[in-house]
Amino acid sequence: MASGVSAGRDPYDEEAAARRPLEFDGRDAASSSSDHRPGNVMPRYQVGSTKGDTSSRYAEGSRSLSTDDMRKSKPGSRYYTAFGVDLSPDNMAVAIVYFVQGVLGLARLAVSFYLKDNLHLDPAETAVVSGFSSLPWLIKPLYGFISDSIPLFGYRRRSYLFLSGLLGALSWSLMATVVSSKYSAASSILLGSLSVAFSDVVVDSMVVERARGESQSTSGSLQSLCWGSSAFGGIVSAYFSGSFVDTYGVRFVFGVTAFLPLMTSAVAVLVNEHRIPPGERTILLSGSGYLESSKQHVRQLWTSVKQPNIFLPTLFIFLWQATPQSDSAMFFFITNKLGFTPEFLGRVKLVTSIASLLGVGLYNYFLKEIPLRKIFLVTTIIGSALGMTQVLLVTGLNRQFGISDEWFSIGDSLIITVLGQASFMPVLVLAAKLCPPGMEATLFATLMSISNAGSVTGSLVGAGLTRVFGVTRDSFGNLPLLIVVCNLSSLLPLPLLGLLPEESGGTDNGEMKHN
Q: What transmembrane ranges does the database entry give (predicted)?
């Protein structure tokens, strides 16, 4: 989707990520999440805000975890539940990893201001750096293959989660100390994206194993737990992301953020996984046998992906994500032209983090039984229309209605983020339900990588349009036209809605069908 609706895991936060926030965790957040992821949902007026993968990655529900959402499950169960999901140690590990992706948003504004003010990049360059740093989210199948096929220290899940956390801590430490150019900054952000993307693949494989064969409603509850956790992390870090930049500077924020990925390393012990005996590990990694196993894995992946019931929905998701965005240009406008401070943008981020949680709740309680085609159709049309409201802010028309720039930005971001998150949740549910048994990590990673590739494509196309329309760090004359073009482009994939499965909320994988 275009800049009107930004949701999903940030490439640094949770799959754009895809959505493409300038941070290490989507969610797209992500920015969400992405992968978003993609990646979390990012504040609307921030560099590299994501659509949904990604990452970005980054994502969030109708309220924080209350006693209604988190309660003792049915009699006989030893665990409490959240969003209808048992909080077993495995599920807690997944939730905490997603929480880390959200809380990494602490440095999101710091990265945005660092690229703009310290490195003096223009909007188009900033979008390119964001797209480059999202590259690790495009090869997630490789991480899935490594995790599934190569046990490290006897574990397929625990060991990779542990090392991913260490890698993330290293990347933020570099940002806090030695990074001083756009190339070193892009490389460090790339390293952080790799950390989050790899851990994301590991926990996603655990989610997919639980979602396989379940109804759309149950799968939606699992995704709601994941993204609700990411949203909660975003809320925890939201306000301080701006006030810390104002008070202590970007380097301090990077240094504090370096400690957060270590939570991913710590929760690896919660994963319920049996250690593979050394003898079996030797057999798995032995010469010709390992090579033949790898070839068979690739053949299975290709056989699965080329099936129409997987390929056609994936094609739609790519095109849906690949429409251009104007987020980088908007960030420069609201900071250079309107004078929004980091502290105020931190408040906006707090509002959008809560709004993302509302979006998860909206989907979990009201939309997860609705057919996917209808959700995509309605949310895309409404999102495109609401995205046009940015024109009011750019032209100053909001002030003629007696609405200040600050209040308009907060209200506009809140509404758009709720809709954006609700529209991205079906992407995750659909991807999880398309995965056949036996290769969950690899195929789910492949599907989300394709989604993230669409997000990166949209980011780069948006950067190209920003340069074509002559929008720079000081010139915003054509910004309204850029916004209109980006939002109208989000409607282009709608004629291809027939590529999505025709199903009702209660059907499972075997009952999905295509036109």
A: 93-115, 160-179, 248-271, 344-363, 375-395, 407-431, 443-469, 481-500
Rounded distance, CA 85 to CA 69, Å?
A: 10
Can you tell me the distance from the alpha carbon of 185 to that of 22, in angstroms, rounded to the nearest whole number? 11
435: tokens are: 């995965």
Give the separation between CA 408 and CA 390, rounded to whole angstroms: 9
Give CA–CA dist 503/489, Å, rounded.
Answer: 27
Nearest partner of 93 among 274, 273, 268, 224, judged by Cα: 268
What's the pLDDT band for 62 if we cut at 50, 70, 90?
very low
Half-sphere exposure of 282 (CA within 13 A, CB side): 3
Residues 34/58, Cβ–Cβ less than 8 Å: yes
Number of H-type helices and E-type strands within the chain: 20, 3
Angle at 8 between CA 493 and CA 150, to 5 degrees: 105
Does residue 417 contact residue 7 with C-beta atoms inside 8 Å? yes
Q: Which of 84, 376, 375, 357 is nearest to 220 (CA)?
A: 84
What distances in angstroms separate CA 167 from CA 193, 203, 262, 310, one per listed residue? 10, 17, 9, 33
Residue 39, pLDDT score? 35
Burial class (CB in 10 A: 0-12, 13-18, 19+), 420: buried
For tokens 């310290």, the residue is: 118
The CA-CA-CA angle for residues 218, 308, 10, to 5°, reads 55
Q: pLDDT at position 11, please?
A: 33
Task: Tell me which H or E stretch contains 190.
Answer: helix 182-211
Gap between the Cα atoms of 5 and 386, Å rounded: 8
Both structure tokens of 384 = 């495109």
pTM of the complete model = 0.71
Tokens linked to 43: 């504040």
pLDDT tier for residue 239 given thresholds of 50, 70 and 90: confident
Report how far residue 442's alpha carbon sits from residue 312's, in angstroms, rounded to the nearest whole number.
18
Q: What is the mean pLDDT of residues 80-108?
A: 79
Q: What is the pLDDT of residues 364-413, one digit of tens each?
A: 788 878 888 888 888 889 989 988 999 999 999 999 989 999 999 998 88
pLDDT tens track for 346-358: 888 888 888 877 8
Instruction: Give dist(CA 316, CA 322) in Å, integer.
Output: 10
